[in-house]
Amino acid sequence: MSDLAGLFEVPWSDYRPDLLDALRRTLSYTVVSFVGAVLLGLGMALLRLSRAWPLRAVAAVYTELFKNIPLLAIIFLAYFGLASAGIRLDVFTAGCLSLVVFYAAYLSEIFRSAISGVHSGQTEAGQALGLGRAGIFGHIVLPQAVRQALPGTNTMLVDLLKSTSLLVTVSAAELMSEGRLITSATFRALEVYLVISAIYFALCYPLSQLLLLLERKVRAGVPLSPWRRRRLRAARALLAQDPPATAVGADVKAGAV
């Protein structure tokens, strides 16, 4: 019992500024890496759907390569491997680069499946309206593909946030690295890593629930764009002001009788 009583004696107030800074760095890694992974993943998905087989081959090799290499190995290659080849990256750049190339491989498969899932009749309808390839993709294919890709993309975002903890191996000054430093100073590993785990849970669980709520709204047909939501509200208000055509027709008949 005396050993257990001594577990919770870390002076957390002394480490609060460092923990807040580590939290900020963790969120920075997550945001920058996720944006980069989405952009690169979308580019790879478009290459996989290209009519030119060399482009499809390059994208396929990239996707299969990074899907089958552990993230930790990619982190070591980006930070230690490139440095031995004369390319020295700072910790933040190497960490973000590792997360981007790893998660872009998975996101490219999600995006490719979502784009392929849009019915070909939608493209034909756009062509019938005189839209070009860019217009068809931007106004017809992409909005529908986003709805289909949202569940998988949300899962990748939460997983990426948790994977930032692997950057402790290159001393990235994120939450896990700060936990290791506090453990070295206090020798209270159980308490420290329980708190670090609780912080990750406090980040990931609300995020996953917010993303789940977003998925439900999308499935219910709620527009993602604020501009589209305003247009929808304006259209509903306009319909509410105008009398239905059937009611007008009934009034005309009643007057004729």
Could you tell me the number of beta strands?
0
CATH architecture name of the largest domain: Orthogonal Bundle
CATH class of the largest domain: Mainly Alpha
Shape: flat
C-alpha Rg, in Å?
A: 26 Å
Number of DSSP helices? 11
CATH 4th-level superfamily of the largest domain: MetI-like
Largest beta-sheet details: none
Helix content: over 70%
Protein name: ABC transporter permease
GO molecular function: transmembrane transporter activity
Main location: membrane
Family: Belongs to the binding-protein-dependent transport system permease family.
Descriptors for this entry?
2 domains, mainly alpha, 257 residues, 81% helix, transport, transmembrane helix, disordered C terminus, MetI-like fold, single chain
